[in-house]
Design a protein that fits this description.
By secondary structure, the protein is α/β, with parallel strands linked by helices. The protein has two domains: 99 residues, Urease, subunit C, domain 1 (Roll), CATH 2.30.40; 358 residues, Metal-dependent hydrolases (TIM Barrel). Helix content is 32%, strand content 20%. Helix 7 links the parallel strand 10 and strand 11. The relative contact order is 0.17.
Length: 491
């Protein structure tokens, strides 16, 4: 059935169009855009006067691999949710699993540097589960530098994954920050030769660890300059923290010199990861001005009391999901740090959405509303709505056109070289994928909190994925699974 969205303020960051118009959707694509379009016979007409229509948000950094998690992201305006920082392995199995189970949103994965190293160093067979990889991040034999043989082994695994449709290479370098910098250069060369981006959680900054083999953010820029690879700096807000001025200045110089550097941020002062992560060791916390009490366990809500308790949990369940408070969002100076990261020219919004934990494991349910007691980080539910609320509605830092550039257009362009299908996303050109968000510009807001992290955002009135409604009149449609795979095609 054709769908006609009638009378909205339409924003297309691909052409910079911002004005009143109708949008006609046919066969999953944008068929026409303009004023007073004729209504095709039998079309579903949505009166969206007073609302804003734009391309659905493309999230480059989502670790939710469940229907439940994707539904929360749908209510936040996301139409394509990609796990590119960590990735999954084998990527063929990850795509097959998602297709078999069905997904409300489009999906895709990078080749997992972390899992490839685990196979080369530890002989562990991958199972395409994010939670398995999370549990390995504190393993000393995984964290060490690779031998020449091991390096060759895991590079070959990454090359195979690119051939199987991975959208680039995800590199969790911050979890193995003492490794030889030559390893990252080798990965960047592989990515450049395949025409695929890298997505990196950088190792620690020199301010946090003066003994680091190389400053984490500077290392990324050096590798991009030396190899010509397209390199994406993940969550610059959480890895740079109060040193974001220096990091963003380096990024600016790197891009001005011709390096293919992109960067992302999210609007929260707390992160989330497995409690066994290298940088959460008790002896490492002081480098960032935090302590054990800055760590809260997601499933139980326990705030870690002291170093002894932290060591106990890290030893017994290193993959347990936790929240790490690295900035105080009540402090104006810390809020300004988050604002700087989002305001940086061409910074992309990306959520770093985390799995939903419930009843001793990952919540994977088709029930909606979600059952009570599920835990996650609020960025899973509210990253995009919070970014719009703070950067457009409250501070006026972005126009609505700029907001859609950062949430839809720019993230899709990161993928253009590796994934031909990305060309149809992030804009409203004729023939583009009909991945659309219709939002109330006066109401759009996050609702999730650290204590109630699964509260859906408000203000997304309609969401179409490939022309199929997933959200209608503000309500999630529980029978909608139109998500399709976005796959890489390396050269």
């Amino acid at each position: 059935m054709d769908t006609l969205l009638r009378g909205a303020r339409v924003i297309d960051p691909g052409t910079t169009f911002d004005g009143d118009a109708d949008v006609l959707v046919r066969d999953g694509r944008i068929a026409a855009l303009g004023p007073d379009l004729a209504v095709p016979d039998g079309a579903d007409v949505l009166d969206v006067a007073g609302l804003v229509v734009g391309p659905g948000f493309v999230d480059l950094h989502s670790h939710v691999h469940s229907i439940a998690g994707q539904r929360l992201q749908a209510m936040d305006g996301v139409t394509t949710a990609l796990d590119l920082e960590a990735g999954l392995m084998p990527v063929a199995a990850a795509y097959a699993n998602a297709a078999r189970e069905g997904r409300p949103l489009n999906y895709g994965f990078s080749a997992s540097w972390g899992t490839a190293r685990a196979q080369a160093h530890l002989g562990i067979e991958p199972d395409a589960r994010f939670e398995t990889g999370l549990a390995l991040l504190g393993e000393p034999q995984w964290q060490r530098s690779s031998s020449p043989r091991e390096l060759a082994h895991w590079l070959s695994l990454l090359e195979r994954e690119l051939g199987d449709g991975a959208l680039g290479i995800g590199i969790l370098l911050g979890y193995a920050p003492r490794t030889d910098p030559a390893e990252l250069t080798a990965v960047a060369r592989l990515a450049a030769s395949a025409g695929a981006p890298t997505y990196t959680h950088v190792r620690e900054l020199v301010e946090a660890d003066p003994t680091t083999p190389v400053d984490g953010s500077e290392e990324l820029m050096i590798a991009a300059a030396e190899t010509g690879a397209a390199m994406h700096h993940c969550h610059v807000n959480s890895t740079s923290r109060r040193h974001v001025d220096r990091v963003l200045a380096m990024l600016d110089r790197s891009r001005a010199s011709g390096s293919r550097m992109t960067v992302e941020a999210y609007p929260y002062g707390a992160g989330s990861t497995g409690v066994g992560a290298y940088f959460l060791a008790p002896e490492r916390l002081g480098a960032w001005g935090i302590g054990p009490s800055s760590i809260v366990m997601v499933e139980t809500g326990e705030r870690i009391e002291n170093e002894t308790r932290l060591r106990e949990i890290r030893a017994s369940d290193p993959g347990a999901e936790c929240i790490v408070e690295f900035l105080d969002e009540r402090d104006p100076a810390d809020r300004e740090v988050l604002h700087q990261a989002l305001a940086f020219p061409d910074a992309i919004v990306a959520s770093d959405a985390m799995p939903l934990m419930w009843g001793g494991g990952v919540l994977d349910t088709r029930d909606w509303p979600l059952p009570p007691g599920a835990g996650t980080h609020p960025r899973t539910s509210g990253t995009f709505a919070k970014s719009l609320r703070t950067m457009v509605r409250e501070t006026g830092t972005w126009t609505w056109l700029e907001a859609f550039r950062r949430c839809s257009f720019l993230p899709a362009r990161v993928l253009d070289e590796v994934a031909p299908g990305a060309a149809a996303k992030g804009h409203l050109g004729i023939g583009a994928d009909a991945d659309l968000v219709v939002l109330d510009p006066d109401r759009i807001s996050d609702a999730a909190t650290y204590l109630d992290a699964t509260r859906p955002s408000v203000g997304v009135q309609h969401l179409l994925v490939g022309g199929v409604p997933v959200v209608r009149d503000g309500d999630l449609l529980t029978d909608a699974y139109p998500g399709k795979a976005l796959r890489g095609e390396p050269r």
